[in-house]
Design brief:
Blueprint lengths: L31 E4 L2 E3 H8 L3 H10 L9 E3 H10 L3 E4 L4 H10 L10 E2 L3 E6 L5 H9 L16 E7 L2 E7 L7 H9 L3 E7 L6 H13 L3 E6 L8 H10 L12 E4 L8 H15 L2 E2 L6 E10 L3 E10 L2 E2 L3 E4 L2 E9 L8 E2 L3 E8 L8 E5 L2 H37 L3 E9 L2 H12 L6 E10 L4 H10 L1 E6 L5 H10 L3 E4 L2 H16 L1 E19 L3 E14 L3 E6 L2 E13 L2 E2 L2 E3 L3 E6 L10 E11 L12
Parallel strand pairs: 1-4, 6-8, 6-9, 9-10, 10-11, 21-22, 21-23, 23-24
Antiparallel strand pairs: 2-3, 5-12, 7-8, 13-14, 13-20, 14-19, 15-18, 16-17, 16-20, 17-19, 25-26, 25-32, 26-30, 26-31, 27-28, 27-32, 28-29, 28-31
């Protein structure tokens, strides 16, 4: 009776839709694909929403062998996108950068009225013509005495207050290896002072400075230095300048020319007057209350301070605490120092300052701009870093391909691997360019790595792995690196003068070239009579006509200037006595070992073989004077 009655109703079935809701598209999806100058294969596949393998197959059909991480140029990417049925949209290289830069600087102060600014003057000329000494006299300091070897090896920026107003001077190096640094100095300047020594003349770097000034479109003022020397001849300098199409005012031209002396101060006031006059003609102006814009003059990594950069402000005002962007690096200005090393809070137009706080050491010549949006600045820096990485990857792939073709064409080629660590970015740039240009068809200089700062333990490990020589230019190894160097035996060389580096690397290349045997003709004897001897067979009665014939050296028998036998002396006699050597103009008897076909009129040539190291010719003809 306690049992429950079963419910008679049937349980309702749940209807589940088993068909999927996806419908196959009736037409293929065509996408608009933005294509920059360089794009990786994986990124291009993601932009088209296709599998990377399918994209690589299409590339292989087109004859392009590429992996997922390799980069394609814009033209190849456009063809691939069209082949796969999508619409390519080529994007200019700087379009995305310009958009991010505009967003990063949005909200800055409205540009106020432009005001007059101090001129930026670059001092250029040949090495050891007195550029830094002239600037020293103007600055009342002794910079040249502290330079290694007495030559300037990086750009120095100085702000000099004169009775005629403030002038910013840039001192550029004159050595042949610093071509790019001089070009950079001409690009950021308003006026170029061309320095020529009165006792020397127009030299290769002088002509190069003239070309840089003309390419940059800036006016020149010629300063003839060392006029107080006895052999000074300013008129000869002016005559040589006319050959370079530089005609001074004294000779009916439009180029100001001043004779100066860094020792006595003669002509310094006239030179400053000429610079101020030229600046007034240019009517130089800049906006002060605006976003700071400038250029990196030099950069380095200092222990305890991190990356430091010398910035020349062109317009606006750079203040401590501003967020700045320089190439692929950005950061907040933690501290600022003027050219004398004193702290400062702000820098206006035409002012060189050293700043701390960047995320890395930017390349010299990079544009510097202060931004208002730090997040956009970080995005732009990441974008530039990505592009720089892609460019380096493409270059390394091209280099490996070129090396393969060179080795296929000319056999095995020796390589000298070099790592460079320098104090400033400009010196590293000049060193890398100079070393890779050392001419040698059999040995190639390969710069494994180059960076600013001291030599670290990781650098030594990289040098061991790549079998490279480490060059420290005005830098040294730290404690751990020195211990690592001792245990590994890596060749580390320290330098402070650039042409010492070039000479030593040239010697190293000569060592890799090995040695070669050279023949030196010691003497020649002419056969006048042939005698028969029971001991030696045919004995040639000779007259030594050139040099000397020595016992123990190999000889050749020539008939009608054709070598018919090579061998050695069996006997050398003078008046029946054995002789060690017989000099020119003396008669002697010569018996040739295992040869009895000597005839009258033959020549017996005595020669010596010596093993010498093969040398290379450096292209540094006028760099060191």
């Amino acid at each position: 009776s306690g049992r429950r009655e079963k419910k008679s109703g049937r349980r309702a079935r749940v209807q589940v839709e088993t068909r999927h809701g996806f419908e196959r598209p009736t037409a293929p999806v065509v996408r608009d694909v933005d294509i920059p100058e360089m794009i990786a294969v994986g990124d291009l596949a993601a932009a088209m929403a296709v599998k990377t393998g399918d994209l690589i197959k299409v590339l292989m059909k087109m004859g392009v062998m590429a992996t997922i991480n390799q980069t394609l140029d814009q033209d190849t990417a456009v063809l691939v996108v069209e082949e796969m049925g999508h619409r390519p949209r080529p994007v200019s290289e700087g379009a995305e950068e310009d958009a991010l830069l505009a967003a990063a600087t949005a909200g800055s102060d409205e540009a106020s009225e432009a005001q007059s600014r101090a001129p930026i003057v670059t001092v250029m000329g040949h090495v050891d013509h007195g550029k830094t000494s002239l600037l020293d006299y103007i600055r009342k300091s002794r910079v040249a005495s502290g330079e290694a070897g007495g030559i300037t090896q990086h750009i120095g920026a100085y702000n000099v207050a004169t009775a005629r107003g403030s002038i910013t001077f840039l001192d550029t190096p004159g050595h042949a290896a610093f071509t790019r640094m001089r070009a950079r100095g001409a690009q950021v300047t308003d006026i170029v002072i061309l320095i020529i020594a009165a006792d020397d003349g127009v030299m290769p770097q002088t002509r190069e400075a003239i070309q840089h000034a003309r390419a940059a479109g800036v006016p020149m003022v010629v300063a003839i230095t060392k006029v107080d020397k006895e052999d000074a001849d300013p008129d000869r300098i002016k005559s040589e300048l006319t050959k370079e199409e530089v005609v001074v005012e004294d000779w009916g031209g439009d180029i100001q020319c001043v004779a100066v002396s860094s020792q006595s101060g003669e002509g310094i006031e006239e030179l400053l007057d000429s610079v101020v006059l030229q600046a007034e003609l240019l009517e130089l102006k800049a906006v002060v209350d605006d976003v700071a814009r400038g250029a990196i003059i030099e950069s380095s990594v200092e222990k305890g301070r991190g990356p430091t950069a010398t910035v020349l402000v062109r317009s606006g005002t750079l203040r401590q605490g501003d967020v700045v962007l320089a190439g692929p690096y950005f950061g907040r200005v933690r501290a600022m120092f003027d050219d004398a090393g004193k702290p400062c809070k702000a820098a206006g137009p035409s002012t060189p300052v050293q700043i701390l706080g960047l995320s890395g050491a930017p390349d010299a010549g990079e544009e510097v701009i202060s931004v208002t949006d730090e997040r956009k600045a970080r995005e732009l820096a990441d974008l530039r870093e990505k592009k720089l990485r892609e460019q380096k990857l493409a270059q390394s792939q091209a280099v490996r391909l070129d090396q393969a073709f060179e080795q296929m064409g000319s056999g095995e080629q020796k390589t000298l691997n070099i790592m460079i660590r320098g104090d400033v970015q400009g010196s590293i740039e000049a060193l890398s360019e100079a070393l890779t240009k050392i001419p040698s068809e059999e040995v190639k200089v390969n710069i494994v790595a180059s960076a600013v700062g001291g030599i670290s333990e990781s650098d030594v490990d990289l040098a061991v792995a790549s079998e490279a020589i480490i060059i420290g230019f005005n830098t040294r190894a730290d404690g751990k690196a020195r211990q690592r160097i001792q245990t590994t035996g890596v060749d580390v060389r320290y330098y402070s003068i650039i042409y010492d580096v070039i000479d030593d690397v040239s010697d190293a290349i000569s060592g890799l070239l090995g040695t070669e045997l050279r023949e030196k003709i010691v003497g020649t004897a002419e056969v006048r009579e042939v005698f028969r001897s029971s001991a030696f067979g045919a004995v040639a009665g000779c007259l030594v006509v050139d040099g000397e014939v020595r016992r123990g050296l190999p000889i050749r028998v020539l008939r009608d200037q054709v070598v018919i036998y090579e061998g050695e002396l069996e006997s050398l006699r003078r008046h029946k006595d054995d002789a060690q050597k017989v000099e020119a103009g003396t008669e002697c008897g010569i018996a040739v070992k295992n040869y009895n076909d000597v005839k009258v009129g033959d020549q017996i040539e005595c020669y010596d073989r010596e093993e010498v190291r093969r040398q290379i010719k450096t292209e540094e003809s006028g760099g060191r004077r």
